[in-house]
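HUMAN: You are asked to prepare a plain-text protein record giving the amino acid sequence and the backbone structure tokens, both parts labelled.

ASSISTANT:
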Amino acid sequence: MTDPLLAHATEYGRMYARSTSETFSVPSITTVIGQQAHSLDGWFGYMGASSLAKDPELPQHLSSPAKMRQAVNKAAKAAEVYRDDAARRGDRVHNYCEQVALRTLGRAHRVKETREELASNGEDAFAARFDEWWELYRVEPIAPEITVWNSSVGYAGTLDLVAKINGRVCLIDYKTKGTTRDGTVKPLDDKVVMQLVAGMKAEESLVDPVAGEWEPWKYGENPVLLAVAIGETEVRPQRANPDVLKHHWWKFCALKRVWEMSADVAAAGTALLPVAPPSYPAAAAPAGSTKLA
């Protein structure tokens, strides 16, 4: 995925600016959604234990406490390594999807290079399944990787694709997914609906990042919201249920308020202050007490 020019990594999460000459001012859609509490403790524990159990040198390590500590430390990082590898794979797949849209639009593209990059990492099947889906659904791209802004609530984000499918405008978010034991793509998380509805509720879209030129958002009037799971065995598109959109929008707005409160708390200063022991005058010391320094 192309890194949005106006996006910045900050201590408050990913944030957006209005132009390349301005400072960031609003959080990204994904940063807001990230305020939702979720625990991966079980998954982290499983990944660590699984990594240690699969270590081919484990029998040799058992006789050496030092080597065993090294093996444990390596296993403890297994979940982070897996997460980072998955993120890089997702970027490569998103890059390819973007280039296919650019090629279809007759614009400069790097389809060949991004396809080769996937192949060099053993990920060519993702591209092959995506191509099949693209042709089957006869996707007509309008705007790939379009940055949007909502001033009323205060957030921004970049949508993977605006396109027409069967005559309907669709806002599309790609998710690169692994494969289950039965050979199907792993299921999508419901929170993708929040991501899509936040895109739909945008008020402006970016025209020129350097000049800071924006225009009214053209595609928020009753679009189809599609989450597209891209796997090695299949691509599975799913439509956000129109009946639940308002609830996911309200939840998103509530999470935005949580983000604001968290930022206010962080900016307010140190939460806990040290307390020195009391010093009593000799005559005023409570009965039975000893003087503290």
